[in-house]
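Q: Structure for this?
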Amino acid sequence: MQVPFLDLKRQYLRIQSEIDEAIRRVVASQFFILGPELTAFEEALAGFLGIKYAVGVASGTDALILALRALDIGPGDEVITTPFTFVATTLAITEVGATPVFVDIDPDTYQIDVNLIADKITSKTKAILPVHLYGAPSEIEKLAALAAKHNLFLVEDACQAHGAKVNNQMVGTFGQIGVFSFYPGKNLGAYGDGGALVTNDEKLRQKILYLRNYGQKQKYYHDESGRNSRLAEIQAAVLRVKLIHLLDWNQARARAVKIYQKKIVDLKMQKIPAGHESCYHLLVVESGRRNELQKYLSNNGVQTLIHYPVPVHLQKCFKGLNYSQGSFPVAERIASSVLSLPLFAELTDEEIEYVGDQINIFFKQ
Ligand SMILES: *Cc1c(COP(=O)(O)O)cnc(C)c1O
């Protein structure tokens, strides 16, 4: 049997008529940028999350950059974040000229370790930027309390966490700004790049609206130097269709994870604390024999990926930050032992059972 890591064609085939209609509607209108689809999607996304405002932009990376810019974070400022994430979280910090200050992760949840943050706060610290990793919430209530206590901004990288909740509140809505990505492989994915910022603050929303549109409040008058970063009408139309299905898809992912958990005997998986609801963007298992396991699964038709093989502080592009091997031992150990299994809403029970069987056979050898 061949089991793909992700097969977006299966999703498309199930919603093809809705998607085709949405795309045709935009093409027929010949209105491509900052039109009615985007407004409708922004309202729908804000409603889904239970927040006042959403602003669509060109990508999750842009959303992170615009979030930091909207909060006036730049050169001389420090932003506390995790070394165990997709590189874009850190790229956004360096892109605005601020300095990322890493804090090691919890060995069970893989999220930023809240207990280690206070020691890293200095007079230059402006914000905490946690990531809800693999679709599971970080300790966002504790992070919000810590940020408030030290008068810091809290910006949530919820790029993997569409629909994840803590005590029934959607992640992305705990800080001043929450950031989402609609990269095609995310739980809510566009048909190209896309992203959004969400906030309850009207002033921040206004500022983000200018920043995403060349910094213009009035056409051809530019008070701030913004960028060109809009979520295209076609993408917004696709996302409007998909948002309606998101909760069902997240439920199907959760169900798949349950089947995996039942099937796979004693393999460590990401811990989800009580009160936390993951949207199961990725299903990650941990093993000291990770590379061997990946090879075995590949030889038996199962496609897997590693999120992420190199922690951010050891990436060559950040060698100027002067971190080295041993700086964040937990992140480094986890990076060398995690493996992401196939997980998407349309995965069949047979496929999951097969992957589980292969893993069990590997560990019995
Ligand atoms: C996907 C992702 C991003 C970047 O989003 P893009 O839309 O690809 O720019 C940022 N942070 C995390 C944690 C992500 O998973």
